[in-house]
Design goal:
Strand order of the largest sheet: 1-2-3
Oligomer: single chain
Shape: globular
Number of domains: 1
Helix content: 25-40%
Low-confidence stretches: 1-5
Strand content: 15-25%
Number of helices: 3
Structural class: alpha+beta
Distance between the termini: 35 Å
Order of helices and strands: EEHEHH
Amino acid sequence: MTNLHPTEFAVTVYRTAGTLTVRVAGELGHDTSDGLSDVVARHLTADEAGLSDVRLDLTVRRRAGAVGATLHLEHRPDVLERMLRLTTARGDG
């Protein structure tokens, strides 16, 4: 049996004019998803938010691909589903 050491989970937020970018590093799972949701919610509800775009950078996708694993996005809301279809059709996904 191999002892796996989970990658430390971290959320980094970048704000530019009208855009909130949330970068997720490490293992996003049941134990860490609430923390991610809380961080994003705080930024979305900030008085000065004035956001027109929210970008989620899941660096976990690259790590999964590096070991030959496929990343699955479960319980996707309709808006994300449409966005994924559009980016895949354009060749960005």
